[in-house]
Structures are given as structure tokens and as C-alpha cells.
Amino acid sequence: MSRTLNRDDLADLARGAALLGTGGGGDPHIGRLLVDQALRESSGTITVLDPAELGDDALIIPTAQMGAPTVMVEKIPRGDEAVAALRALERHLGRRAYATMPIECGGINSMMPLLVAARTGLPVVDADGMGRAFPELQMETFSVYGVPGSPLAIGGENGETVIIDTGDDNRRMEWLARGVTIRMGGVAHIAEYSMTGADVKRTAVPNTLTLGLRIGRTLRTAREEHRDPLAALAATMADTLYDKVRVLFRGKVVDVERRTEAGFARGHATLVAFEGAGKLEITFQNEHLVARVDGEVRCVVPDLICVLDADTAEPITTEGLRYGQRAVVIGISTPALMRTPEALAVFGPRAFGLDVDFRPVEDLVPG
Amino acid sequence: MSRTLNRDDLADLARGAALLGTGGGGDPHIGRLLVDQALRESSGTITVLDPAELGDDALIIPTAQMGAPTVMVEKIPRGDEAVAALRALERHLGRRAYATMPIECGGINSMMPLLVAARTGLPVVDADGMGRAFPELQMETFSVYGVPGSPLAIGGENGETVIIDTGDDNRRMEWLARGVTIRMGGVAHIAEYSMTGADVKRTAVPNTLTLGLRIGRTLRTAREEHRDPLAALAATMADTLYDKVRVLFRGKVVDVERRTEAGFARGHATLVAFEGAGKLEITFQNEHLVARVDGEVRCVVPDLICVLDADTAEPITTEGLRYGQRAVVIGISTPALMRTPEALAVFGPRAFGLDVDFRPVEDLVPG
Questions:
Q1: CATH code, domain with B276
Q2: For chain A, how many structural domains are there in total?
Q3: Does the ipTM exceed 0.85?
Q4: Which of A88, A160, A179 lies closest to B180 in CB terms?
Q5: A228: phi > 0 → left, psi -120 to 50 → alpha, else beta; which?
Q6: pLDDT tens figures, B173-227
Q7: pLDDT, tens digit, 9 for 90 and up, residues A86-135
Q8: What range defines the domain where residue B286 resides?
Q9: Do A138 and A11 have their domain in common?
Q10: Is the CB of A171 inside 8 Å of chain B's CB atoms?
Q11: Which residue of B has its CA nearest to A164?
């Protein structure tokens, strides 16, 4: 059953996507402003398709922004780059897309397909390939379950396009696309993982746009109604594929070490407890990868590590981390299709070079 | 009138192309081995077309290797990468090539279109876009006189392809293609500047494959017949578009500073005179850019600066420069279409960041 999104939904979706971005994914509020403007200039609504209703042969072309979040917040898109990438890929394939879709539901990439939809009139599929945000293009459930990312099209700010075809080698596709993105100034717009409706139903994490919207709405209404936002969040998540929510730490940011290198934002953040001597360290590559409390792993990728404002529960991105911020850090379980051995081989901790085995957050922090 | 090339021609062509490479362009002897092998496995001949005989509407797709010469000598091609690039560009354009052509006649790129020709049966046009070798893709007479380099196709060693389209911005095409080449390990194979026969006749430097062959043959036969190779070279060049040959310096290599950075081989070489206290310094970016004797400019890009073995007149590439080598350094005038204000804006000394105005070698070193 399709539904529609309009301008009134965007603030909630951006808030939920910031949480699902686990610190990275680019600030969705920038994407929100672009979508808001495009909706004011167009029909005002976006059609959202449930993946279950897709025809098996429908051509779906996901669209996204790629780059370091630290650059994304400084280099605002013109707004039509992702449409140019989509059109370039359609020309290359010799077919038109039936719909677009997010590749990740966290961060700015929850918004970029909506921007494409608002500008083209295409519907958006309510699903994605990361179920959160990840820093690299091969880190997709699409990739895990056999959909090639190639051919990938890149659109740049001067109207230039690049098409990369690495066959079924999605790591090599990421490597070459990252090189082009760096040369384009650290941010580019892409269309990739073109697939059929049947592929979407088999490989995508379903209903994650709706999930982002629900999370954002939950946090806002809890705040408006003076209820505990974390309790409200846990209640909302309980009937989703992300049903375990754990508080990992409450404390104050005392150190952030962040650098933009090789096209990524990498670094560490350290928090000390409001009470007692406890210390939390988070390691990130665009997104939060591992959270350790006093040296013990409490949550690790692909489970979600989210830093929220201690008072408002507003999600804080890694580029927004500042000395002195008061935060609560939570862990959220990811869906079962993101925790299989095949999935962990692509986006588990060792895929990021961490010498840590994956353990579910609900085992690391019993409820 | 077409002619044919066969295996017996390759050694002379490689020697001539090494001279026209002005120190860079990649070592043509590696390309020669690849062409020799391909000819042994095929018909054994390559058809060479005079540009004057091309139909105005014939589709010509030049092919080449790109990268740092310092890497090219270590990373030997498999041999079908440039064919893959040509085929990818043909698919993108929806048309088949009538012939291929060099983009530069100096260095290994004199050979790469012959490799494509030997493997595909396509003829090769006897012309190029540099009239020598240059380090960057926008540095083409094609570009100077209005032919866009885009779309450009890149073929990598794993069968991957990349298509770059920057419209008529050939500098941006170079920038993005260089980024991809670096990510491919420092060397890649390309097809670009697809153009009509009419474009070739209007913008290419004509008959430069034949020129390379004549230069190589001249140096070899002079050596075999114990004649002065420099006098023989000057006599050969006298009836070509490159009709001024000047000896700039004779001396011994005492210093070479060479680094591979940003995808290029950059550095300086210093020679001291066999007699007296004179000193020659050459600055290079893949190719020799400027030669100064005791601080005075004696020859500057786009005129050719060639380092030859003092005894045999064999050309020496920058990556072959060694302490103690005994060399003669010569300057050669480039064709008039490479010395126009439009041409100098693209590949004159200031296009390389040198604070030097172009002056013809025949003015700097009167004959």
C-alpha cells in the first residue's frame, strides 16, 4: 500500500534518520532543507511504496550522496546532482527507473532519494540496503545477498558524470568511486545497485523510511508531552526489526579527535560518566563502529551506537560532537538479515579492521 | 595512401618515439614487446592510414595508456586493457570505430594504438594530438582546436571500466581520470577524443607515426654506417614540420631528483659539461619542460628537449637517467600549430606553472 510524504513529515524523518545514522551518514537536516524547497516548488507530496507491493520486474534505481560527513556539512548540494546521476545510469542501462530508493536510511541519505523524487515525480521505495548508515558502498545488504552495485553513476557539481562498472566486485567499485568523489571535492552524488522489485524484496531492509519517521515522531512527542524519550523510543522499537534498545552510558564529552582522511571522517570520542569514574570511548569511520566502557566492548557494528543529547534525546552526529556536551549513548539491535555470517563478513567489526568479534548488544548489555 | 607496419618496423619506431617522448611518455620499448607479441599472434601487419585519406564522417577513437612513467615501467599491461576501453566507449557512443589513433606520438603511446590495432584488426591513423608527449590529457591539439575529450573510457587490469563525461571541460576530465588512474595503481588505459575524420584533418599533428619511424631509422643507420647521428637527424628533420634541431649541451649527469607524486613523475636532472664549468638543469613533469644552461633558458615546452646517449645517440627517458651517464641534449622545434597562442595557453610553459615565456628554440639557440 503506498502512502505519501509531505513537508510536515520532514523534521521528524530527519531526526529519526540522524539516530539511524549512528553518528554518521551526513547531517539529514541539510537534506531536509533541500527536500523542503523542492516540495515547495513541486506537487508538494512524495509517493512512498511499500516494498511488498513492487512488481518483480520493476526497475528500482537507488540514489544517494557519498563523501565524508565533515565535508557534506560544508559543501551544500545544488540539488540536481543525484537526478543527473540517475539519468546518466538510465541512459547507460537503456531503461527508465520505476522508482528510486535509499541505499541507507541513516543520515542525509534518507533524504537524497526524496529530493530525487520531489524533482522527478518518481516514487520512493520504503526500504534501504544498510538499515542504518555505513561508510562504504559495498556495505549493503544488496551486496551481501548478491546484487551487484555496478554500473554506478556519479554526478558532480559541474554537471559532469562518471560511470563505473566493476562487474560483481563491489569493493573495487567503492574504491574507484571514492577516488572520483575525493577529486570532486569530497562529496558526490550517485545512482547504483539498480535492481528489480524481486531483488528489493529479497535483499533490502524493509520499511526503514517509515521507521525513521516513527523514531523522529516518538522523540518529538515524548519531549512535547514531557515523557521520558528513551522509554518512548524503546516502546516504539519493540514492534520493529530493531527491538532491543540498551543504554550504554551517560556522561559528558571530554575529547573528540577527528580527521578527514582518504575521503572519510575518522576518529575517536571520549565521554566521562556524570557520576563515578567510568569512561566511554567511541571509535568512528563516518559512523560509530565500537563503544567501549572502561575498555570493555558494549556495542559494536553493525548494531547501532547512537549519541543523544542527555536532556532532549536529540541525536548528535560525529561532526556535531563538542567538548562539554552532556549525552546518553544507546545501543540498538540490528535486524536479523544484518547479523548473518555473510552480512558480518561485509560490515561486521573485522570488515573495518577492528580486532573485535561481533556480539549482539542484547548479550553485551543484558536488559 | 595507406601503408602497413610490421614487426621489423617496431624497433625503429620505438627509438624514434623515445626521442619524441622528450624524456617521458613511458618507455616505448615495453609497448614494442607487447605489439610484437600481438603481431606474432595475428595477421602480422597493421594498416596505417594517412589522415588526408580519411572520410570526413569516419569515427576515429584514439587509444592510449595514462599514468606515471615511473610506474609504467614496473606495471606491465596484460595487453587487452586499451581494447576494453575502446569497446566500452563504442558501447557508450552506440557506434563502432573506423580506426584508432595515437593521442601522443612520443613514448609508449606511439605503441598502444598499434597494440589495439593488432588485436582488433582496426587500422591506425598516422597522426596524433601532442606531436610529442605531454603529461596531461587536456594538452592535445584536439583540445586546443575544439574537440572535446569526453566521453573518455578507462579500462583497468581487472576488466573494470569507467566512463567520464565532463562535456567540453577537458581539464576536469584529466583531473577525474587521473584520480581513477591513481586508484587503479598508477597506470590505466583509455579511449578518448572520439572524433570525425574531418576533425582529425583539422586538429591533429599529421604523419607523426611515420616521423617516429624515420627518426628511429635515421639514428640506427647512422650508427651502423659510422656517420654522425646528430647530423643525420638534422638532415631527416629538415623536411618535416620539426625542422630546427639545436645542440643545447654535452655533458655528464651528476644529479637526478625524481619523485612520483599526484600520479606524475616530477623532478630535475643536472648535467655538467665535459669541458669547462657549464651546467645544464632540466625540469620535468613526466616530460622535460625546460632546459637551462647556467641559469639561461635554452629550450622550453612545447619545443622538444631530448637527452641522447653521447656516443650512440640513443634517447634516454627521465626514468632511465643515471648518475654518470654521458649525454648530448638537443632541442627541436615543434610544428606551427603547436606554437599558436591558443596552443601555448594549453601546453606552453605557464600551463605547467613555470614562470617563463615561450620562445622558439631557434631564437634561443641561433643555428
A1: 2.40.390.10
A2: 2
A3: yes
A4: A179
A5: beta
A6: 999 999 999 999 999 999 999 999 999 999 999 999 999 999 999 999 999 999 9
A7: 999 999 999 999 999 999 999 999 999 999 999 999 999 999 999 999 98
A8: 228-356
A9: yes
A10: no
A11: B162
